[in-house]
Amino acid sequence: MARPEDALAPDLPAEHVPGDVADVPGAAPRPAETWLRIVQVHDRITRRVDSALHRRHDLSLTGYEALRRIAEAPGERASMGELAEALGISRAGVTSTVTRLVTEGLVVRERSSGDRRLLHARLTPAGRAKVEEARPTHDDLVAHLLTLLGDDAAAVTDALARVSAAARTRR
């Protein structure tokens, strides 16, 4: 009796007919493959950019991102909670990062005038200079690496934004 896959490839021996749709070029990847690629890309780009920032500016990627977020915040001032959310790290991680930036004279900690329990990080002139000095290193390297997305950049960005938004909601 003829099998359905024989009708699709009558000239190919049975061993050349994929048994699994995931083995067909262009077919949708399995979730585990997609997850692995996301983790690999994040890890590799992060290490590469972190290394460049350390070498050229004596600044970690996390430190740079914290400075950038503070620089972009109203009044160049952000709460620890805002930084933790923006950077995707714990409050303890933000505290550690901000402590290093304070020690280096790049930010100062301030209490909120409206709620004395709330702690903010404010950029110093040295912090503003450091983030502006490091920005081209960060942005140029990231842009260079992401050019490999080619014409798929908009679709990839949109898809990742949807996943990110869905992952924010807690179940």
Automatic annotation (TrEMBL):
SUPFAM superfamilies: Winged helix' DNA-binding domain
The organism's place on the tree of life at top rank: Bacteria
Annotated spans, Disordered: 1-26
Molecular function terms from GO: DNA binding; DNA-binding transcription factor activity
PROSITE patterns in the record: HTH_MARR_2
SMART domains given in the database record: HTH_MARR
Keywords noted in UniProt: DNA-binding
Boundaries of every HTH marR-type domain copy: 31-165
One of the GO BP terms on file: response to stress
Membrane-spanning segments: none
InterPro entries: HTH_MarR-typ, MarR/SlyA-like, WH-like_DNA-bd_sf, WH_DNA-bd_sf
Protein name: DNA-binding transcriptional regulator, MarR family
Source organism (scientific name): Geodermatophilus siccatus
